[in-house]
Amino acid sequence: MSNYSKQRESILNIIKKLKTHPTAEEIYMKVKQIDERISRSTVYRNINILVENAEINKISMPVGPDRYDYIDNKHNHVICEKCGKVFDFYYEVPKTLKNEIQRQLSGKISLTESLEINGICYECKSKKEKWEV
Amino acid sequence: MSNYSKQRESILNIIKKLKTHPTAEEIYMKVKQIDERISRSTVYRNINILVENAEINKISMPVGPDRYDYIDNKHNHVICEKCGKVFDFYYEVPKTLKNEIQRQLSGKISLTESLEINGICYECKSKKEKWEV
DNA sequence: CTTAAATTAGGAACTATTCCTAATTTTGTT
DNA sequence: AACAAAATTAGGAATAGTTCCTAATTTAAG
Q1: Tens digit of pLDDT per residue, chain A (133 long)?
Q2: Residues of B with CB under 8 A from a CB of A
């Protein structure tokens, strides 16, 4: 746990506190307020280590940089296809869905529980309605 | 439909033919075999237009460049978190899941049917088992 | 045909991320 | 505590993927 460097500790703590799915850059700016000497590459490197160690989640975005998420209670994401905004929702992936995937893809891939569904947020939707007139 | 430029037609046809979730670069290389004068920026620009027009899907990857997918029959994706390999599966998103998301996030976002579930493919899994010993 | 609008090729610019190197910090051993 | 080995750092250069810019060309409309 705590045989982590000071820098890695700070980075993990920031991500734990933020409930906003921050980008690497946002994390960097926040950590800088605590340790102004930290370098961007240290932040990126440690974020990757934390993902590798499954302490945080990476969320790949349809637009803009990746976002990160502390893994506490299991939750899933709905992501806006246009602007990339992320919404959390809480729901156990149904067994029937898991079974069906297993049936179709057995021997190829095994699931890791985390579910992402695409949508269009109402902000982007109302923008589009204006354009399309 | 066909008040598209010659270049855009070629790009769409290539994506239709390929069942491999190609990257922009892969599409560019294929189109080049037909029209060797086409430029990379034309390929990128038209891919974005086709996504905007909902003729193709963009798949954001956990690793490496985005991939694209012709929208014929509805299908969803399971994506390897480590290497980004994409597997198709066919399944209607259950109504209970849709309803639950609607209940939790109503007024914020509306779904667009396309579902992405993360996993770890067996190739990456067997690699990891070797490391972890 | 002529003019306007859209699209192109080609390359520069940009954004996000990784890689490199020498210096510093941490860990383990005695 | 003193030392060597291993891990990590800061800082910046390099890379990958994508978008943007411009002048030239193509297509569409009157």
Answers
A1: 446 789 999 999 999 999 899 999 999 999 999 999 999 999 999 999 999 888 999 999 988 999 999 977 778 888 988 888 999 988 877 778 888 888 898 788 888 877 888 888 888 887 755 444 3
A2: 58, 60-62, 78, 80-81, 85, 87, 89-91, 93-94, 96-97, 100-101, 104-105, 107-122, 125
Gap between the Cα atoms of B65 and B69, Å rounded: 13
Which residues in chain A have their CB less than 8 angstroms from residue B104's CB? 89-91
> A5: domain CATH number?
1.10.10.10
Residues B78 and B40 in one domain: no
CA-to-CA distance for B49 and B54, rounded, in angstroms? Answer: 9
Number of domains in chain B: 2
